[in-house]
Design goal:
By secondary structure, this protein is mostly helical. It has four helices and no strands. It has one domain: Four Helix Bundle (Hemerythrin (Met), subunit A) (Up-down Bundle). The protein binds zinc ion.
């Protein structure tokens, strides 16, 4: 193992994200399976839990949506890694500190610019690449 350079840290983050990506794909497949099982159950005339099914359907759909969103963020992070832009603030161009990247691997801004950006629009800590 080489020294603890920034590149090595980013490589570790990449490995973590790759692992997370695989987990997400498995999770999305599982959630989709649950969704279609639910749809199957709805078609059953004996099945009378309509309202509950709708709620579960909604919850599962939201879950898939969140999982897909995280997957997109991971893919965007990989793109920035390939382009050599990962870990660089899109606003000021400064290197984003490693501890911030460890905590929020999808961060595309340094903490200061992220704060400024948050004030302009309400959103989570996970900035999407188009923002
Ligand atoms: Zn910045």
């Amino acid at each position: 193992m080489a020294a603890n350079t920034r590149e090595n840290h980013i490589r570790l983050i990449r490995e973590r994200l790759q692992k997370r990506r695989r987990e997400l794909i498995t999770a999305i497949q599982a959630t989709r399976g649950e969704l279609s099982a639910l749809k199957e159950a709805e078609r059953d005339p004996e099945y009378e839990e309509g309202a509950q099914t709708e709620l579960a359907d909604y919850t599962l759909s939201q879950l898939v949506e969140n999982q897909r969103r995280e997957l997109m963020l991971i893919d965007a992070a990989f793109q920035r890694m390939d382009a050599g832009e990962f870990g660089r603030c899109v606003d000021c161009g400064a290197e984003i500190p490693l501890d911030r990247l460890e905590a929020v691997p999808f961060a595309i801004r340094c903490e200061e610019d992220a704060r400024l950006h948050e004030q302009e629009r309400t959103g989570g800590a996970y900035a999407s690449p188009t923002m």
